[in-house]
Each structure stands twice: as C-alpha cells, then as structure tokens.
C-alpha cells in the first residue's frame, strides 16, 4: 500500500464528509428575514456564543431566536473533521482538546449530544537522535500523569531535575489556579471607571473580583509568577532544570503556534495557555475527540439546534448592516439576501470583522489603524498524513502485531532534544526561510480512535514550525515549495522512525497562506493574533475594546481574537454571550 515515491503522493482537496445536519428551526429550516441575533461563522466559539445554546433559560424567557451563518460546507471553523481521502478522517486544522471550559460541557450537555473523549496518558514522548547498541536503545523522555514514572524517565538525563520536577508542576498548577477565573469573564472595564454612569462604575467594580482573587491565590510569590508571565521561557526553565531534553520538551508548549523563540520575552504565558486546560476533572489533560475535532463542533451544534438555533452552511456574510444611528441591524449575505437582527456577533477574526465586513465610515480611524497593525505572524505548517502502518521509532520499537503502544498516543516531539534547536528553527524563519530542522509535533489520533482510518492504517497529524508566511527571495508557497518543505519534514521523521516515508499513502500540506485561505485565520495564525502580552486581556483585540463590544453598537466580537484568546476553549464565545444577554435586556 505504500506510496513508493512522490509521483504517487496525491495533491489532496477537501471533500465534504458526513457531518452534523443543519439545524431545523422555523419553517422547515428555511432562512427567515429577521432574527434576534445573527452569528457570523460557525467556529466553536461562534456556536458557543450562539445565545440560544449558551443561556437557554434566559433567552427562552426573552424569546430570542438566533441564526448562524458559516462560509464553508462544514461547521466548526478550525475544529473540523474532513475525509480527505476515502476512509481517512482528519482533524484538518486543530487536532487536540484540552482548553474547552468545563462549564460549556456541562451547560450544553455535550456528552448527551455525542461528545466522546479519549484522554491521553502518557501524553508526551520525546525520542533522542543518538546511537543505540545491542543492549541499549536510544533514550527517550515519556511523560504522563504518574509522577513517580515521570521522575524515573527524567532521571535518565538528570537526577537533580527528577527531584525538581514535582515542585515545578505544583508551582505551575498554582499559577493556573490563579489565572483560571480570568478566562471566564470580560476584562476589567477601565473606561467605565473614568466615564461611566454610577451603575456602570459599580458593574466595573465587580469585574475586579477575578483579578483580586488571582492576587490572593499567588500571595507572596506574585513576583516569581510575574516573571513566568513576562520572561523568556528559557530563563524560567534554566532556573529550575539542567537537562536539555526536559527543558526543550516543556518549551514546546511555550512556542507552539507562535512566531516566538524560547528566548523571546513573554513566551512563558504561551506555555501557561497550553497547560491550563482541564478535562473530566483532570488538570492539564489533553485528549483526542472520537471522530475527530469536528465531532466536538457537531455536539455543540446539536445542542444549539435542540434549543431552536438555525445553522446554515455555505452562507457567506458579505457585510454587516449598520443603520443611520450607527447601530448594527443585521447582515447582507454574499448572494445579496439581507437578514435583519437586533445584534450581530462575529466569530471571524478582528481583521475580517472590522476591515472587511463592517462599513469603515462607522469605525474611528484610530481603531481601524490598531486592528490593521495587529501581529498575526504564524510559524505553522500543518501536514495531514495517511499511512499504512504505525511509525516505528528507534527509541521505542513497535510491539509484535503493530498494535499501538503508550507512546503512540502522545504528542511526539521531534527535533526537540535541545532548546537551541528550537531557537535555530525560529531564526531560520525570521530570515524568511523554512526551518532547516523544523520543530515537529507528531500525533496519531487513530492510535486511540480506530474509527478514523481503515484497519491497519492510521492518520498522522504533523504540526510543524517554523515556516514564514512570506518567503525570502521573492519565492511563494507554490506546490514545489510546499512539497520541498514537506519532504524535509518527512526526512526528519525518517531519522527517528525509519520506514515512515514508505508508509505514506497521501498528504495534505497547509502552509500559513493555506490556513488563511481555507479557515480565514489571519496570516495563518491559529489564535487570530499573537498571544503576546501586548495583545492579551485589556488589549485583546485592542485597548478599550476588550469587553467584546466595538465602536458599532450591537456588534460583538466572539472569536479567538477576543479575550482570552485562541485554542479550542469556547471562553470568548461564552463570555461574549453573557455581555450580549445583558445588553439585550437593556434594549
């Protein structure tokens, strides 16, 4: 079944796969001329932000009805499952779940609507590129929830680090505990303190509670935690550990999806963003979704549909309608049809929402300038691969019968033995060149979910970086450049797992321009904008507009470009919905 050469590696194009059917609301699910709320984009945040699904009790009492318009043939935004080749189902963009807020799972009864998770334990595997012997395999670092087992693994590289690791984990857990409440509320409304009415000032005071609670949680250690959030992650890790394999493995969470080096100030927050999740009561757990990430979006959509929402695919919003008083009053679709509404929520990026869909005459010039200057650099090229066998790593040879083992279910970190490797990969991209030794996170979701591939075969997700959006020397990301880069990635994998290239049946290569074109991720950025300290909390997407409202009344931002940022979290959608509920009751 192996491809046996580039000539048999097909250029792949997405084809619709069986997915959640359109919500049936109103007269046979037909589009109505008017709704209470319109949501632009059926990404997971847009579905969560759907007021009908998020706060059914409130809106049933208010009589709110909602329509969601999705540009593509499939819902979910970047959280989609697509059958790229017959029998192989890929989480084509996002591929792991951890950050989804527990309240959303409970409120929307997602398990009742079909959500099934495969928690991963162990969860991280970093093989070494080193010569083995007859009596000793190349070393590797395998991490999971068993602390004693983790310490045994780490002691291969440093006994001192093995002793320090539990203290590091407890330190980070406390920081997560402090930050967690900030994710579920709009940032402090500083404008209301200065210019708001008495009632608005009192409401603004209530938004201080999560900040005060965070300060109490951190206590006297606040300066140390401040350093974690603002310093380069390399500095944070160097203070605690000495072994490079451990430091580099932990550092991957600080740079993944970000055009940053472990030596970049503020990279510590990105690490925190990737360890603050909780699934089924397990802090920091990551899972595969049964049926791929699209199954999560399907479950959210199903929950919304049962509460009366209408969800339409292949319905592109071309324009936000604004009335003569400067208030959003609906949307115009690409086919010219107009749909009126009391409020409009946009799950699209800030750039698409405010620079393309909103009439510019209703936006202050300074606001437009700030939006246009947002940092959206992306280092990511996602490669989806169909293979006819499990990768066989020299550091952990496959068992007889080729059955998946513990390390196969992990995030497998390649070219990650040393933080210097990560920095050098970053430096290549800063010069406009794809990394010579890319950082690779290899995942095999079919190791836990056999429904994704035919018997004996597997789907492999390669989240790779660093690849610049714009190449040096006037080059563009054409098929030749994409294949050259993918070949380099496959050569790297081959060094760790000989035979990988022969197992490849087909591949789907998504560079930053592809991610932008297909999923409307600005610059290919998976977070809708950099998760840097200057673009977080008060400043997401821009200062004075971090409360999901914008200069156009009745228009709200509810996607990853809003607080608290990207990842399959749903918090931005849920928080925006709360703001909309309050505003609707006052209209």
TrEMBL record:
Amine oxidase domain segment(s): 56-393
A GO cellular component entry from the record: mitochondrial matrix
Pfam families reported in the protein's UniProt record: Amino_oxidase
Keywords: FAD, Flavoprotein
Keyword Hydrolase among record annotations: no
Cell compartments where the protein resides: Mitochondrion matrix
Major localisation: mitochondrion
Origin: domain of life: Eukaryota
InterPro entries: Amino_oxidase, FAD/NAD-bd_sf
GO MF annotation, one: oxidoreductase activity
Function: Probable oxidoreductase that may play a role as regulator of mitochondrial function.
Subunit and interaction comment: Interacts with COX5B; this interaction may contribute to localize PYROXD2 to the inner face of the inner mitochondrial membrane.
Family listed: Belongs to the carotenoid/retinoid oxidoreductase family.
Record protein name field: Pyridine nucleotide-disulfide oxidoreductase domain-containing protein 2
Organism per entry: Mus musculus (Mouse)
Top-level taxonomy: Eukaryota, Metazoa, Chordata, Craniata, Vertebrata
